[in-house]
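To the structural biology subgroup,

Please find below the input and predicted structure for DUF4890 domain-containing protein, which we are adding to the shared reference set this quarter. The sequence is reproduced verbatim from the submission form. If anyone notices a discrepancy with their own records, reply to this email rather than editing the shared folder directly, so we keep one authoritative version.
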Amino acid sequence: MKKLILKGAMVIALGLLLTGTAVAQQQTTAQRQRQTTEQRAERMTQDLKKELNLNEQQTNQVAEINRQTTQEMEQVRANQTLTRQERREQMQQIQERRTAEIRKVLTVQQRTRFEQHQQKMQQKPGKQRQNPQQPVQRRSGGRRGGN
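Predicted structure (tokenized):
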């Protein structure tokens, strides 16, 4: 009887732990989605400033690049006349241009760290790979019915 109660308590505790983790992830995603383009640009700039140890001039230049590209991406997202493929292609072009512009601002050492940072960001869950030769692995059970 005690073993049964103990097992039940462990199952409940595990369920609460998993539920808490899922709620925290949903809140983080929701917070990210509610950010304005300026907030996203600022977050991106601060991430790079920290990761690459940017000086003040570099930080200002990267901030302007990020502001411009996040605004452009928002315009593409809002354009309902584009197909999904056209939207994806335009977003990729904007991202490639952003990367090239940021690289121009960086020192040789910072460029190396920037490339490593880019690769690390691509490995995060939910990020698509920029290399079209590598298939994007999708998680099943999403909103889109397993697409």
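Summary notes: Residues 128-147 have pLDDT under 50 and may be disordered. The CA atoms of residues 44 and 66 lie 7 Å apart.

Regards,
Lab coordination
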